[in-house]
């Protein structure tokens, strides 16, 4: 278990770099100071390692976000706050943000758990009648794809401090929420995260 944890930590270092998109198993083995054979004993492929890392990078944070927004009755508020939490974290933790960007390039955006949770929130909003769009899949892609692109702008220093609020508002607008309501949802006070999380 110690060796596996060491590999995942090294993979986070590699994927948390701007050039992490091009990471190879050899890069992770070198960063972990292990042989390739040892690495392959624990992870049979880069896809398997990426999946394990995506879980490590996203699971606790997603749980903290989900727990925090679960008390909100309206899917518009839940969606806007989730987007803002992800982008605010990107502003304060560039390595985490780069790992999210690089891992999303070849798999589920922000990992399989986040991908499913985003779709569920959109589906709830359609059921509540606040997202007048044709499918939850469309809404999920709009929400996650825009947030991922915005995260890239954040880590490259091309975004204003209030970019999370701007992005969240326009995502809601794209989901069919009238602009004034979208702005209101996106600029409410962001609740305090209810749980601590680790990478």
CATH topology: Tetracycline Repressor, domain 2
Name the average pLDDT.
91
Number of strands: 0
The number of distinct helices, counting runs of at least 4 residues, comes to 10
**First and last CA, distance:** 16 Å
CATH superfamily: Tetracycline Repressor, domain 2
* Amount of helix: over 70%
Largest sheet: none
Radius of gyration equals 18 Å
- Give the helix/strand class: mainly alpha
Give the CATH class: Mainly Alpha
> How many domains is the backbone divided into?
1
Going by CATH, the architecture would be Orthogonal Bundle
Q: How would you describe the shape?
A: elongated
Task: Please mark out the parts with pLDDT under 50 across 5 or more consecutive residues, or reply none.
Answer: none
Order of helices and strands: HHHHHHHHHH
Strand content: under 5%
Structure description:
It is a single chain. The protein has 199 residues and is an all-alpha fold. It has helices spanning 2-15, 25-32, 36-42, 46-69, 75-92, 94-104, 111-128, 136-155, 163-174, 179-186. It has one domain (47-186): Orthogonal Bundle (Tetracycline Repressor, domain 2), CATH 1.10.357. The chain contains 10 helices and no strands. It is elongated.
């Amino acid at each position: 278990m110690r060796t596996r944890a060491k590999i995942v930590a090294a993979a986070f270092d590699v994927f948390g770099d701007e050039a992490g998109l091009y990471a190879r198993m050899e890069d992770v083995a070198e960063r972990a100071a292990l042989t390739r054979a040892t690495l392959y004993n624990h992870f049979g492929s880069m896809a398997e390692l990426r999946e394990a890392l995506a879980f490590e990078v996203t699971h606790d944070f997603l749980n903290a976000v989900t727990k925090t927004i679960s008390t909100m009755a309206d899917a518009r508020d839940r969606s806007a706050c989730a987007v803002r939490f992800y982008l605010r974290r990107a502003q304060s933790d560039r390595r985490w943000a780069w790992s999210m960007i690089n891992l999303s390039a070849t798999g589920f955006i922000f990992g399989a758990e986040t991908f499913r949770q985003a779709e569920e929130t959109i589906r709830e909003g359609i059921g509540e009648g606040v997202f007048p769009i044709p499918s939850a899949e469309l809404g999920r892609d709009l929400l996650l794809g825009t947030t991922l692109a915005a995260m890239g702008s954040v880590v490259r220093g091309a975004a204003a401090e209030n970019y999370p609020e701007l992005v969240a508002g326009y995502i809601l607008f794209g989901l069919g929420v009238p602009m004034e309501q979208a702005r209101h949802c996106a600029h409410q006070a962001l609740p305090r995260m209810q749980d601590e999380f680790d990478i």
